[in-house]
Amino acid sequence: MNAVDIINRKRLGGVLTEEQIEYMVMGFTEGMIPDYQMSALLMAVCLKGMTKEETVQLTRIMRDSGETVDLSEIKGIKVDKHSTGGVGDKTTLIVAPVAAACGVPIAKMSGRGLGFTGGTVDKMESIPGFVTSMERSRFIESVNETGIAVIGQTGHIAPADKKMYALRDVTGTTESISLITSSIMSKKLAAGADAIVLDVKCGSGAFMKNYEDARELAEWMVDIGRGNGKRMTAVISDMEQPLGRAVGNALEVQEAIEVLKGGGPEDIRNLSLGLAAEMILLGDRADGGRANAEELAREALESGRALEKFRRFVENQGGNPDITEDTALFAQPAFAVEVRAEEAGYVTGLDALQIGLASQHAGAGRETKEDEIDMAAGIILDKKTGDEICAGDLLCTVYGNDKEKTEAGARESRKAYSIGLQRPEKRELIKEIID
Ligand code: URA
Question: Which tens digit of pLDDT belongs to each residue from 98-110?
Answer without folding.
Answer: 999 999 999 998 8
